[in-house]
Amino acid sequence: MSDLVPLLFNLGTFFCFLATLPLILVLWKDRKSLRGLSFFGSLTTLLGVSCFMIAYILLKIWISFCLEIPVFVFWLLATIYSRR
Questions:
Q1: pLDDT digits over 9-32, tens only?
Q2: What is the domain partition of the chain in residue ranges?
Q3: Which of 31, 73, 75, 77 could pair covalently with 46 via S-S, beta carbons 3.0-4.6 A apart?
Q4: Which residues contact 75 (CB under 8 A, 6 or more apart)?
């Protein structure tokens, strides 16, 4: 059972990473596209991703931590640009 938890975290984070790649490409092409996002929604998502990253460090799930970095960066930029 305990071996299943890191595997599920890695799998879930991999899917989040894959889902974020097209969003990063849109951001790369047109930064103004993020201005329509909700600041509260972006900030809340950023806080959630941050909590997951802290949990990955505490659980020593390094694959998930590394895959979550681009997701964190995207939501950080989304939060900054949605504020403007």
A1: 899 999 999 998 888 888 778 877
A2: 39-84
A3: 75
A4: 42, 45, 46, 49
